[in-house]
Design goal:
single chain; alpha+beta; five-stranded antiparallel sheet; four-stranded antiparallel sheet; about 20% strand; elongated
Length: about 400
């Protein structure tokens, strides 16, 4: 009987073959980059490469892609490449390399004191803003602020159902409320008041709390830190034209200064928009005006959570606290493996990879995260100058915006 001999590859052969393939892939990647070309010629082709599970062959974290928004070219970094276990494909997270080159923006505007469920006839009313959950004496000590005092005002015009009662001027927690006055509006979108009247300490007239809900003091003073109801989330996910994207997310909502702009998605390249997938995002909720915990939203464009930026979990009070709530669990590779300083573990302090500028300038901007500082109703995490993630600011402050999206 003839003897057949089979020469099976040995382990070192497999290793050599794999190395040769990877070497060819490196050469291919280098060729495309040197030629100023991409492996695929369209966003649809990029998405198809994701679905085929081949993104890592030709692209890497830190590579940059471009699209147009009107006449502006937006530069996107690949900040994370993940696997879709159900399909064997990949997903890619893109984030703008720098802040959008338009303006700094508030996360959310200061809110109304009260929203009328039925018509409020002209007359005298009083209210006391809500301070539940707040332990800071700057809010609760009547000798330091007026937020726990009762205030009265008299209107000469009816406030229609759906109308709002607002302070007429901006305020801080440690200022007297009397000089602020009261402005009434026929609906949340209005920026021209029905009238402005004086405000004095007292309890004359009808208590607004008997007619509906009086808003939390922190939200009235500094805006609301809940991502699902933020102005930025609504703007980022709108295709509407100039001045038409804004609508109230809750009874107390007021228009942001960019309510007159077109929505972020309005003038983006159609072929790019066609491949952006909705992401399920987990975001913490404050435990002062709300019940704490977290919620899920579905968004095309979004701000990163603190954990995405390799900043650690979003503790309620500070990094040493035992009380925490965990948001998204994925740390994006751009902020770990792709590091200028070579570190690979969690970095809660300065990280140059987090530094962003107004696109096209040398002006460094702090920029918004979507994570709230859950110890208050009005404070949102931001990346500070120098790339620190733990810093927090009032929601109505203006900072840079560097959105992200997912292609799958």
């Amino acid at each position: 009987m003839a003897t057949e001999t089979f020469n099976l590859p040995r382990r070192e052969d497999y290793t050599r073959i794999a190395a040769a393939i990877e070497s060819q892939n490196d050469l291919l990647r280098g060729h495309f980059k040197a030629a100023g070309e991409t492996v695929v010629k369209s966003w649809e082709g990029f998405r198809n490469l994701c679905r085929a599970g081949g993104i890592r062959t030709y692209y890497a974290v830190g590579d940059q892609l471009q699209c147009k928004r009107g006449d502006t070219t937006l530069i996107w970094d690949i900040v994370h490449i993940g696997d879709v276990e159900e399909t064997g494909g990949n997903y890619v997270i893109l984030q703008t390399h720098d802040c959008l080159p338009i303006d700094t923006m508030e996360f959310d505007s200061r809110e109304a004191i009260f929203c009328a469920k039925t018509t409020l006839p002209a007359g005298t009313y009083h209210f006391t803003t809500v301070t539940s959950g707040t332990t800071d004496p700057n809010w609760t000590d009547s000798s330091k602020s007026g937020w726990t005092k009762s205030w009265q005002f008299t209107t000469t015009k009816d406030v229609p159902a759906g109308g709002q009662i607002n302070f007429a001027k901006g305020m801080d927690w440690n200022t007297s409320l009397a000089p602020l006055g009261i402005a009434t509006y026929s609906k949340p979108a209005d920026t021209t008041a029905l009238e402005t009247v004086t405000l004095t300490e007292g309890t004359n007239g009808t208590d607004l709390a008997t007619l509906g809900t009086v808003n939390h003091a922190q939200r009235v003073c500094y805006g609301y830190n809940r991502w699902s109801q933020s102005g930025l989330r609504q703007w980022l996910n709108s295709k509407a034209g100039a001045g038409t994207w804004w609508s109230p997310r809750n009874d107390f909502d007021r228009p942001e200064h960019y309510a007159t702009w077109a929505g972020f998605m309005n003038d983006l390249d159609a072929d790019f928009l066609a491949v952006v997938a909705k992401s399920n995002l987990i975001t913490d909720i404050n435990k002062i005006s709300d019940a704490g915990g977290h919620e899920t939203t579905q968004d095309y464009f979004f701000l990163p959570a603190m954990v995405n930026l390799n900043g650690g979990n979003n503790f309620y009070n500070n990094p040493g606290s035992d009380v925490q709530d965990i948001e998204d669990t994925v740390v994006w590779d751009y902020y770990t493996k792709f590091r200028r300083d070579g570190k690979t573990d969690t970095n809660v302090e300065q990280d140059d990879n987090r530094r962003k500028y107004k696109q096209g300038t040398s002006t460094e901007w702090p920029w918004w995260e979507r994570s709230p500082d859950c110890g208050g109703a009005c404070v949102v995490r931001r990346v500070s100058d120098g790339g620190r993630t733990w810093w927090s600011s009032f929601a109505y402050y203006w900072f840079g915006v560097a959105p992200a999206c997912r292609i799958e």
